[in-house]
Prior knowledge:
The structure holds two protein chains of two kinds.
Chain A: E1 6-11, H1 17-23, H2 28-35, E2 37-40, H3 49-53, E3 60-66, E4 69-71, H4 72-84, E5 85-91, H5 92-97, H6 109-119, E6 134-137, E7 140-143, E8 147-152, E9 162-164, H7 171-182, H8 250-253, H9 271-282, H10 293-305, H11 310-314
Chain B: E1 3-8, H1 20-30, E2 35-39, H2 45-57, E3 62-67, H3 70-83, E4 91-95, H4 97-101, H5 107-127, E5 134-136, E6 142-145, H6 149-160, E7 165-168, H7 191-204, E8 211-214, E9 217-225, E10 228-235, E11 258-260, E12 269-271, E13 273-274, E14 286-287, H8 302-306, E15 320-326, E16 328-331, E17 335-337, E18 354-356, H9 357-364, E19 384-391, H10 406-420, E20 425-430, H11 441-449, E21 453-457, E22 465-469, E23 472-478, E24 484-489, E25 491-496, E26 498-500, H12 504-511, E27 523-525, E28 529-533, E29 538-540, H13 550-567, E30 574-576, E31 581-583, E32 603-606, E33 611-614, H14 624-628, E34 634-636, H15 641-652
Helix pairs in contact in B: 1-5, 2-3, 5-15, 6-7, 6-13, 9-10, 10-11
Amino acid sequence: MGAKPKLSMYWAASCGGCEIALVNLNEKILAVDAAFDFMFCPCLLDTKKKDIEALPDGDIAITLFNGSLRTEENREMAHLMRKKSKILIAFGSCSSAGCVTALGNLSPKGENFKTIYLDSPSVDNPKGIIPTPHTTVPEGVLELPAYLDRVKSLAQEVDVDYFIPGCPPEPHQIWSVIQAVTSGKPLPPKGSVLGGGTSSVCEECSRTRGDKKIKELRRTFDFKPEPDLCLLEQGLICMGIATRNGCGALCPKVNMPCTGCYGPPEGVEDQGAKMIGALGSIVDVEGLKELKEEEINTKVDEWIRSIPDLAGTFYKYTLAESLLNQLKGRKK
Amino acid sequence: MKVGVVFCKCGTAITEKIDADQVQQRLKKLYPDVDFVTVDLACSEGGKEFVEAYLKDKGIDRMVISACSPRDHENTFKGCMHRAGRNPYLMQMVNAREQIAWVTADKVAATDKAVRYLDAAVRRVMLHDKLESKQLDICPDVLIIGAGPAGLKTALTLAESGRKVIIVEKTPVIGGMPVRYEDTFPKMECGPCMLEPIMGDILHGPHSADIELLTMAEVQGVVGSYGNFIVQIKQRPRYVDPHKCIGCGECTAPCPVSTKNPFNYNLDEKKAVGFTFAGALPNSVYIDPEACVRFKGESCQLCKDACPVEGAFVFDDKERVLERNVGAIAVMIGSEVYDCSRIPNLGYGKFPEVYNSVEFERILSSTGPTSGEIKSRTGKPPENVAIVHCVGSLDSKHKDYCSSVCCQAAFKFSHLIDKRVPTAKITHFFKELVVPGKEEFHLFHEAQNNTKTKLIRYGSIEELKVSGSGERISMEHPNGKGATEKTIFDMVVLCPAMIPAEDTAKVGKLLELTQDKAGFFDEMHGRMDSSLSKVKGVCLAGTCQAPGDIQRSINQGLAAAGTILSGLVPGRKLEIDPIKASVDAARCSGCRVCNSVCPYKAISFDPAKKISHVNEVLCMGCGTCVAACPVGVIKGNHFSNQEIMAEIDGVLS
Ligand SMILES: Cc1cc2nc3c(=O)[nH]c(=O)nc-3n(C[C@H](O)[C@H](O)[C@H](O)COP(=O)(O)OP(=O)(O)OC[C@H]3O[C@@H](n4cnc5c(N)ncnc54)[C@H](O)[C@@H]3O)c2cc1C
Ligand code: SF4
Ligand code: SF4
Ligand code: SF4
Ligand code: SF4
Ligand code: SF4
């Protein structure tokens, strides 16, 4: 057993979908077990933090780290796993770029707590208790990991070797990464995205497309989309144009527009900004030609207002990494 | 890589605000390997020599020059790079004078700003690519679409300078609209006669050998771009060899079939074989296969039998598809008039006495349906004629614009009616009167001073209501004194708006030309470049670009010819500036976002490879597609995302 390289998977702020994706390797999970000593995974195994602390530094060959960094505990574990792993992989959208949890960065901590613990209709909290890192009860002091001011991606806290995109990553892509790592062949340069393509989802999408001109936006419940025509051209915001390929265009295949879970295409810094740039280039609001500037503004504003949730649409998976909240500290 | 910063003091214009020593020290700290030198006046002869020598002596291959606006001297310093044997694109200019010294009053702030700008420029210049301009062989020949005054003048001018010209004209005749006019404003010159010298030269002048005239022809396909277009032209059969036909017209009388004459707007009939009108050029008859009984299975050949020339008739003539290689295309397909029946209260199409302006031109013409005689339905000369201006023009319900020629055409009509039917009374109904120019007012004054002529202003075209009453028609109209009146007229002449020709959209699609709101072809710039379209190598002239008179159309044609002559010179290659966009074919997802964004129509989609492609001849390097491509695989040379981001980082650092 001891001769096999160690493999671990840690979850920070995540939904657990990434673990399910790993298990979705089905019988191939046996091959993973044959190649590795799968020794740490809080969702599936009973190894404890102290067991990891006891390991020599760099003892774990590969750690798949999923989930974003929301709490002090997430942060601590990120540092620990970095220290103990030879290869640290940011696994899935949360760990790569913040994903849905990072949408919490749109509001300050206090406001988030107010919504979660006080205002939410399903909450019954007559005393208005808000959790704090230390709570004194008759029996002593209770501790909770502190809530960070903002959600970070893994790479914003520690040095990351590779990234595997997806919410969650597709099993065949996880498999291709495992194969690459176990093949013994030279690994791609540090910082590379593994388990994805270098183009966009459209590359893998079989829908036919024409010159793109988007007259009006619609939502999936407004109509039944044509089965063979590009969804974006039918007025649905399909993030496929600005999303790294690799998933096999799963969503458009079943008439759902891509929401962008594979993150920005290779070399694109900000997925949301790219999407907005692209959409802005193909807006074709009827009768704009030769209108006065204010009239054009009004019409375009109307068009923009028809997008129900701007941040949630364009930055569903990447707000933590967006240029928007990083005036300082951009990766060089 | 050795980067050198040349800091020009611009006399004292820059250094009175920016402390050059401090800039040097702070830059040295940031970039120890970057060289720094100051110069008093970099753009002076001595300054340029200094820069050149500096580049050579210090082995500098990438230069940041901090001086004035690139608009002033970017090319000057590129020249220094070039003469020093350096690639001129490995240079970045910082506008320290206009953007810093002139606008930032505080010396400390100005110096700080200069350091940031230079930091940005140094980061950027290190990423610059060694770009090279390319040279392409060109074809100097030109295709002209439309043989109206604009097309003919352009063609002749080009041929006179030795260019080979191909003219494609849809109808069997050349000359466009004006050959249908008996007289033209402002000087009442005969339309066909005025154009005859040009048409004569085109057909058999000293340069006619360089002109290939294809009548009854249309362009049906265009590929390629500026310098090298391949054009496919479809020519309908004429069934008569125009080179053999001597134009005697012996064949027409024996022909048993008569058919509506479209050239006279169906106001009379013509034979299945014949001219469009007497004197039409080229001087050759043609057979209308829709009318001719031979094409309905009969064995008639009366025309051929009457023809004195052997072999002039070619009954088995076929449609031809020709291919020509040209370097530039001039689109001059003219215009037509607005359909007056869309304003039902004017009675057009309902009462035969109501004519539109082009029909009336034919009535006035000695080659027209009445041989130029103006007569009412009863066959008598009209006693009372109404001429309505601005029909559909300056009218938000129809055409917003002023058609610019209708008032003058209306006063031309007034003049001719008065001359030919001196007893006739004429009333002009106008919304606005437009007679600009140094000669154009004469006909207006003539009408104004004519006691038999009245001018009445109306507010909206709906105020004019034409109705039938027995032999004559009457019109309810404002009387100019605030009341409404009903008057009997024997003729109403409507002057409708000029609108783009029927084929505008079709031709536009072939050449990727865009149309404005009214449907005319979009020009590059309304004031500065109205004879150029937005597609490089495609020129515009005449009323297909905007309503106008013959003078304007001809001048614009000459402007187009000038552009073509200066841009495509035989023996000279087309130099392609390397600041262009290019698609990384391996990574393009084929999403087609970029396809419609290029203002110069430089991007095409390859359906087989499912990727997009930028044509480097057409691309102007504007960067629109670079911003649009959601995969980030379109690179704007010299303005790559990396270069721009490095610059931003430098300024914000
Ligand atoms: C009623 C009236 C009276 C006017 N009187 C005067 C006047 O007295 N004086 C004056 O200066 N101006 C006058 N004008 C304006 C004048 O007619 C125009 O300025 C002039 O005709 C414009 O010339 P052009 O070459 O642009 O177009 P046109 O004269 O319209 O010629 C265009 C040519 O292109 C051809 N064409 C069209 N489509 C195609 C195609 N798809 N392929 C190939 N060929 C095609 C047409 O058959 C035609 O031969 C008058 C206009 C009107 C409406
Ligand atoms: S449906 Fe979406 S993924 Fe498919 S081609 Fe259109 S934009 Fe691209
Ligand atoms: S189509 Fe888009 S949202 Fe769906 S799985 Fe693929 S990348 Fe994710
Ligand atoms: S062959 Fe046709 S065109 Fe000639 S005379 Fe007979 S009907 Fe007329
Ligand atoms: S850079 Fe501008 S001109 Fe060139 S292809 Fe792109 S959009 Fe067209
Ligand atoms: S926008 Fe970019 S990815 Fe899409 S077709 Fe154009 S070049 Fe290709």
